[in-house]
Description:
This protein is an alpha/beta fold. It has two domains: 3-99 and 236-268, 3-Layer(aba) Sandwich (Rossmann fold); 104-232, Rossmann fold (3-Layer(aba) Sandwich), CATH 3.40.50.720. It is 36% helix and 21% strand. The strands form two sheets. A six-stranded mixed β-sheet has the order 2-1-3-5-6-4. A six-stranded parallel β-sheet has the order 9-8-7-10-11-12, sandwiched between helices. The longest helix has 17 residues, at 234-250. It binds NADP nicotinamide-adenine-dinucleotide phosphate.
Amino acid sequence: MPDKYGIIGHPLGHTMSPTLHNWGFNALSIDAEYAPYPLEPNALPAFMDRVRSEPILGLSVTIPHKRAVMEYLDRISDRARRVGAVNTLYWEGGELCGENTDVIGLTAPLRKLPSLPETGLVLGAGGAARAAAAGLLELSIPEVLVANRTRSKADDLARDFPVRVVNWEERMDVAPGLICNTTPLGMAGPTQELSPWDADRFPEGCVAYDIVYNPLETRFLREAESTGCTVISGLEMFLHQGLAQFRLWTGREMDEHGARRLLLDALGS
Ligand code: NAP
Protein backbone atom coordinates (compact mmCIF):
# COMPACT_ATOMS: atom_id res chain seq x y z
CA MET A 1 0.00 0.00 0.00
CA PRO A 2 1.39 3.42 -0.90
CA ASP A 3 1.92 5.89 1.96
CA LYS A 4 -0.97 8.32 2.27
CA TYR A 5 -0.80 12.09 1.98
CA GLY A 6 -3.43 14.64 1.02
CA ILE A 7 -5.18 17.96 1.39
CA ILE A 8 -8.21 18.93 3.50
CA GLY A 9 -10.41 21.95 2.85
CA HIS A 10 -13.98 23.02 2.20
CA PRO A 11 -14.84 23.74 -0.46
CA LEU A 12 -11.69 22.21 -1.86
CA GLY A 13 -12.32 23.37 -5.42
CA HIS A 14 -9.48 23.01 -7.87
CA THR A 15 -6.06 22.60 -6.28
CA MET A 16 -2.68 22.05 -7.93
CA SER A 17 -1.25 20.39 -4.80
CA PRO A 18 -2.03 16.78 -5.89
CA THR A 19 -0.35 17.44 -9.26
CA LEU A 20 2.74 18.82 -7.54
CA HIS A 21 3.20 16.21 -4.82
CA ASN A 22 2.32 13.15 -6.91
CA TRP A 23 4.83 14.35 -9.50
CA GLY A 24 7.45 14.65 -6.75
CA PHE A 25 6.73 11.17 -5.38
CA ASN A 26 6.94 9.72 -8.86
CA ALA A 27 10.16 11.56 -9.77
CA LEU A 28 11.88 10.29 -6.62
CA SER A 29 10.34 6.76 -6.81
CA ILE A 30 8.59 7.19 -3.46
CA ASP A 31 5.69 4.77 -3.00
CA ALA A 32 3.12 7.33 -1.89
CA GLU A 33 -0.13 8.90 -3.01
CA TYR A 34 -1.48 12.43 -2.38
CA ALA A 35 -5.28 12.73 -2.50
CA PRO A 36 -7.87 15.48 -2.03
CA TYR A 37 -10.05 15.03 1.06
CA PRO A 38 -12.93 17.54 0.86
CA LEU A 39 -13.92 18.01 4.50
CA GLU A 40 -16.73 20.03 6.05
CA PRO A 41 -15.87 21.74 9.35
CA ASN A 42 -17.95 19.35 11.50
CA ALA A 43 -16.11 16.37 10.00
CA LEU A 44 -12.69 17.53 11.23
CA PRO A 45 -12.61 15.68 14.62
CA ALA A 46 -13.35 12.27 13.07
CA PHE A 47 -10.88 12.93 10.26
CA MET A 48 -8.13 13.76 12.76
CA ASP A 49 -8.74 10.35 14.43
CA ARG A 50 -8.28 8.83 11.00
CA VAL A 51 -5.00 10.72 10.44
CA ARG A 52 -3.63 9.03 13.58
CA SER A 53 -5.10 5.56 13.06
CA GLU A 54 -4.42 4.91 9.38
CA PRO A 55 -2.01 6.79 9.58
CA ILE A 56 -1.99 9.59 7.04
CA LEU A 57 1.66 10.67 6.87
CA GLY A 58 1.21 14.28 5.79
CA LEU A 59 -1.52 16.78 5.07
CA SER A 60 -1.90 20.16 3.45
CA VAL A 61 -4.55 22.17 5.27
CA THR A 62 -6.59 24.90 3.68
CA ILE A 63 -9.64 27.06 4.44
CA PRO A 64 -11.55 26.67 6.77
CA HIS A 65 -9.40 24.26 8.82
CA LYS A 66 -6.11 26.16 9.20
CA ARG A 67 -6.85 27.39 12.72
CA ALA A 68 -9.25 24.66 13.89
CA VAL A 69 -6.76 21.88 13.18
CA MET A 70 -4.31 23.27 15.77
CA GLU A 71 -6.03 21.72 18.79
CA TYR A 72 -5.50 18.20 17.39
CA LEU A 73 -1.71 18.45 17.16
CA ASP A 74 1.07 17.38 19.54
CA ARG A 75 3.43 20.14 18.48
CA ILE A 76 3.12 23.44 16.59
CA SER A 77 6.04 25.48 15.26
CA ASP A 78 6.65 28.98 16.63
CA ARG A 79 6.09 30.29 13.11
CA ALA A 80 2.63 28.71 12.82
CA ARG A 81 1.74 29.96 16.31
CA ARG A 82 2.73 33.50 15.35
CA VAL A 83 0.51 33.36 12.26
CA GLY A 84 -2.26 31.57 14.14
CA ALA A 85 -2.66 29.05 11.34
CA VAL A 86 -1.26 25.68 10.29
CA ASN A 87 -1.20 24.69 6.61
CA THR A 88 0.94 21.54 6.94
CA LEU A 89 0.73 18.45 9.15
CA TYR A 90 3.66 16.06 9.40
CA TRP A 91 4.96 13.40 11.76
CA GLU A 92 8.20 13.70 13.71
CA GLY A 93 9.35 11.32 16.45
CA GLY A 94 5.86 9.85 16.72
CA GLU A 95 4.31 13.29 17.22
CA LEU A 96 1.82 14.93 14.90
CA CYS A 97 3.24 18.38 14.14
CA GLY A 98 1.96 21.57 12.53
CA GLU A 99 3.87 24.08 10.41
CA ASN A 100 2.98 27.07 8.27
CA THR A 101 4.81 26.70 4.97
CA ASP A 102 2.88 29.66 3.46
CA VAL A 103 5.38 31.85 5.33
CA ILE A 104 8.32 29.81 4.01
CA GLY A 105 6.84 29.99 0.50
CA LEU A 106 6.29 33.72 0.68
CA THR A 107 9.82 34.48 1.82
CA ALA A 108 11.65 32.09 -0.56
CA PRO A 109 11.65 34.33 -3.69
CA LEU A 110 12.46 37.41 -1.58
CA ARG A 111 15.56 35.66 -0.22
CA LYS A 112 16.83 35.45 -3.82
CA LEU A 113 16.77 39.24 -4.31
CA PRO A 114 20.18 40.96 -4.34
CA SER A 115 19.03 43.08 -1.39
CA LEU A 116 15.93 43.39 0.73
CA PRO A 117 13.86 46.57 0.84
CA GLU A 118 13.75 48.78 3.94
CA THR A 119 9.95 48.97 3.84
CA GLY A 120 7.37 46.35 2.90
CA LEU A 121 3.67 47.12 2.46
CA VAL A 122 1.16 44.29 2.76
CA LEU A 123 -2.16 44.92 1.00
CA GLY A 124 -4.98 43.00 2.71
CA ALA A 125 -5.44 41.72 6.24
CA GLY A 126 -6.83 38.20 5.79
CA GLY A 127 -5.15 34.84 6.34
CA ALA A 128 -2.59 35.30 3.57
CA ALA A 129 -1.73 38.80 4.84
CA ARG A 130 -0.87 37.33 8.25
CA ALA A 131 1.52 34.89 6.54
CA ALA A 132 2.96 37.80 4.53
CA ALA A 133 3.45 40.00 7.60
CA ALA A 134 5.10 37.10 9.47
CA GLY A 135 7.34 36.45 6.45
CA LEU A 136 8.49 40.05 6.02
CA LEU A 137 9.25 40.23 9.75
CA GLU A 138 11.13 36.91 9.57
CA LEU A 139 13.27 38.50 6.86
CA SER A 140 13.96 41.41 9.26
CA ILE A 141 12.57 44.00 6.86
CA PRO A 142 12.86 47.05 9.12
CA GLU A 143 9.41 48.53 8.52
CA VAL A 144 6.32 46.49 7.71
CA LEU A 145 3.13 48.36 6.83
CA VAL A 146 -0.38 46.96 6.36
CA ALA A 147 -3.30 48.53 4.48
CA ASN A 148 -6.71 46.95 4.26
CA ARG A 149 -10.06 48.02 2.84
CA THR A 150 -11.64 47.34 6.25
CA ARG A 151 -9.41 49.26 8.66
CA SER A 152 -10.49 47.30 11.76
CA LYS A 153 -9.06 44.05 10.33
CA ALA A 154 -5.70 45.72 9.76
CA ASP A 155 -5.84 46.96 13.36
CA ASP A 156 -6.50 43.35 14.48
CA LEU A 157 -3.43 42.22 12.55
CA ALA A 158 -1.36 45.00 14.11
CA ARG A 159 -2.28 43.72 17.57
CA ASP A 160 -0.55 40.42 16.74
CA PHE A 161 2.44 41.70 14.74
CA PRO A 162 4.76 44.73 15.03
CA VAL A 163 3.42 46.41 11.90
CA ARG A 164 2.10 49.92 11.22
CA VAL A 165 -1.36 50.36 9.75
CA VAL A 166 -1.85 52.70 6.80
CA ASN A 167 -5.33 53.77 5.70
CA TRP A 168 -6.41 51.96 2.54
CA GLU A 169 -7.11 55.29 0.83
CA GLU A 170 -3.56 56.48 1.64
CA ARG A 171 -1.70 53.30 0.68
CA MET A 172 -0.15 54.84 -2.44
CA ASP A 173 1.15 57.85 -0.51
CA VAL A 174 3.79 55.73 1.23
CA ALA A 175 6.68 54.74 -1.03
CA PRO A 176 7.54 51.18 -0.01
CA GLY A 177 10.42 49.20 -1.52
CA LEU A 178 8.11 46.18 -1.63
CA ILE A 179 4.37 45.99 -2.26
CA CYS A 180 2.83 42.60 -1.52
CA ASN A 181 -0.74 42.12 -2.74
CA THR A 182 -2.66 39.56 -0.68
CA THR A 183 -6.12 40.72 -1.77
CA PRO A 184 -7.94 38.76 -4.48
CA LEU A 185 -7.92 41.82 -6.78
CA GLY A 186 -6.63 40.65 -10.16
CA MET A 187 -7.57 37.01 -9.62
CA ALA A 188 -9.42 35.20 -12.42
CA GLY A 189 -13.11 36.01 -12.04
CA PRO A 190 -15.06 39.21 -11.49
CA THR A 191 -12.04 41.21 -10.20
CA GLN A 192 -9.50 40.01 -12.80
CA GLU A 193 -9.24 43.41 -14.48
CA LEU A 194 -8.70 45.24 -11.18
CA SER A 195 -5.43 46.15 -9.49
CA PRO A 196 -4.83 47.29 -5.91
CA TRP A 197 -2.33 49.91 -7.16
CA ASP A 198 -2.51 52.72 -9.74
CA ALA A 199 -0.21 52.16 -12.73
CA ASP A 200 1.43 55.59 -12.35
CA ARG A 201 2.07 55.31 -8.58
CA PHE A 202 4.70 52.56 -8.36
CA PRO A 203 7.77 53.85 -6.48
CA GLU A 204 10.93 53.73 -8.58
CA GLY A 205 12.78 50.44 -8.31
CA CYS A 206 10.22 48.79 -6.06
CA VAL A 207 9.45 45.08 -5.90
CA ALA A 208 5.84 44.14 -6.73
CA TYR A 209 4.82 40.77 -5.32
CA ASP A 210 1.37 39.39 -6.11
CA ILE A 211 0.38 36.25 -4.26
CA VAL A 212 -2.44 35.69 -6.75
CA TYR A 213 -1.20 33.13 -9.30
CA ASN A 214 -4.19 32.68 -11.57
CA PRO A 215 -3.66 34.43 -13.93
CA LEU A 216 0.11 34.20 -13.69
CA GLU A 217 0.50 37.81 -14.77
CA THR A 218 -2.07 39.97 -13.01
CA ARG A 219 -2.76 43.55 -13.99
CA PHE A 220 -0.81 44.63 -10.87
CA LEU A 221 2.31 42.75 -12.04
CA ARG A 222 1.91 43.79 -15.67
CA GLU A 223 1.74 47.48 -14.80
CA ALA A 224 4.54 47.21 -12.22
CA GLU A 225 6.82 45.54 -14.75
CA SER A 226 6.09 48.14 -17.41
CA THR A 227 7.33 50.85 -15.02
CA GLY A 228 10.57 48.96 -14.38
CA CYS A 229 9.74 47.29 -11.05
CA THR A 230 10.96 43.81 -10.15
CA VAL A 231 7.96 41.48 -10.14
CA ILE A 232 7.29 38.21 -8.29
CA SER A 233 4.34 35.99 -9.16
CA GLY A 234 2.22 34.13 -6.61
CA LEU A 235 3.26 30.93 -8.33
CA GLU A 236 6.62 31.25 -6.55
CA MET A 237 4.88 31.31 -3.15
CA PHE A 238 2.73 28.33 -4.08
CA LEU A 239 5.70 26.39 -5.43
CA HIS A 240 7.92 27.04 -2.41
CA GLN A 241 5.23 26.31 0.19
CA GLY A 242 4.79 22.97 -1.58
CA LEU A 243 8.54 22.24 -1.75
CA ALA A 244 8.75 22.92 1.99
CA GLN A 245 5.86 20.51 2.66
CA PHE A 246 7.51 17.79 0.58
CA ARG A 247 10.75 18.29 2.53
CA LEU A 248 8.93 17.93 5.87
CA TRP A 249 7.15 14.76 4.72
CA THR A 250 9.95 12.91 2.95
CA GLY A 251 13.23 14.54 4.01
CA ARG A 252 13.95 14.84 0.28
CA GLU A 253 14.12 17.74 -2.18
CA MET A 254 11.77 18.01 -5.12
CA ASP A 255 13.48 19.32 -8.25
CA GLU A 256 12.56 23.02 -8.12
CA HIS A 257 12.91 23.73 -11.83
CA GLY A 258 10.95 20.65 -12.90
CA ALA A 259 8.22 21.45 -10.37
CA ARG A 260 7.95 25.06 -11.61
CA ARG A 261 7.65 23.83 -15.21
CA LEU A 262 4.94 21.37 -14.11
CA LEU A 263 2.91 24.13 -12.42
CA LEU A 264 3.36 26.50 -15.36
CA ASP A 265 2.04 23.76 -17.65
CA ALA A 266 -0.87 23.11 -15.27
CA LEU A 267 -1.73 26.81 -15.44
CA GLY A 268 -1.63 26.64 -19.22
CA SER A 269 1.40 28.86 -19.63
P1 NAP B 1 -9.16 36.39 3.02
O1 NAP B 1 -8.77 35.90 4.37
O2 NAP B 1 -10.57 36.28 2.56
O3 NAP B 1 -8.69 37.94 2.90
C1 NAP B 1 -8.93 38.68 1.75
C2 NAP B 1 -8.41 40.10 1.95
O4 NAP B 1 -8.57 40.79 0.72
C3 NAP B 1 -9.17 40.88 3.01
O5 NAP B 1 -8.25 41.68 3.70
C4 NAP B 1 -10.14 41.71 2.19
O6 NAP B 1 -10.45 42.97 2.75
C5 NAP B 1 -9.34 41.96 0.93
N1 NAP B 1 -10.23 42.19 -0.21
C6 NAP B 1 -11.14 41.34 -0.73
N2 NAP B 1 -11.78 41.91 -1.77
C7 NAP B 1 -11.28 43.16 -1.89
C8 NAP B 1 -11.52 44.24 -2.76
N3 NAP B 1 -12.46 44.17 -3.74
N4 NAP B 1 -10.82 45.40 -2.60
C9 NAP B 1 -9.89 45.51 -1.64
N5 NAP B 1 -9.61 44.50 -0.75
C10 NAP B 1 -10.29 43.35 -0.88
O7 NAP B 1 -8.31 35.64 1.88
P2 NAP B 1 -6.83 35.02 2.03
O8 NAP B 1 -6.92 33.63 2.52
O9 NAP B 1 -5.99 35.99 2.76
O10 NAP B 1 -6.40 34.91 0.48
C11 NAP B 1 -6.20 36.06 -0.30
C12 NAP B 1 -5.62 35.72 -1.66
O11 NAP B 1 -4.38 35.06 -1.53
C13 NAP B 1 -6.48 34.77 -2.49
O12 NAP B 1 -6.52 35.29 -3.80
C14 NAP B 1 -5.72 33.47 -2.46
O13 NAP B 1 -5.94 32.69 -3.63
C15 NAP B 1 -4.30 33.95 -2.39
N6 NAP B 1 -3.35 32.98 -1.79
C16 NAP B 1 -2.28 32.60 -2.54
C17 NAP B 1 -1.36 31.70 -1.99
C18 NAP B 1 -0.16 31.26 -2.80
O14 NAP B 1 0.44 30.24 -2.47
N7 NAP B 1 0.24 31.99 -3.82
C19 NAP B 1 -1.53 31.20 -0.70
C20 NAP B 1 -2.64 31.65 0.05
C21 NAP B 1 -3.55 32.54 -0.52
P3 NAP B 1 -11.67 43.18 3.78
O15 NAP B 1 -11.13 42.85 5.13
O16 NAP B 1 -12.03 44.61 3.61
O17 NAP B 1 -12.77 42.24 3.34
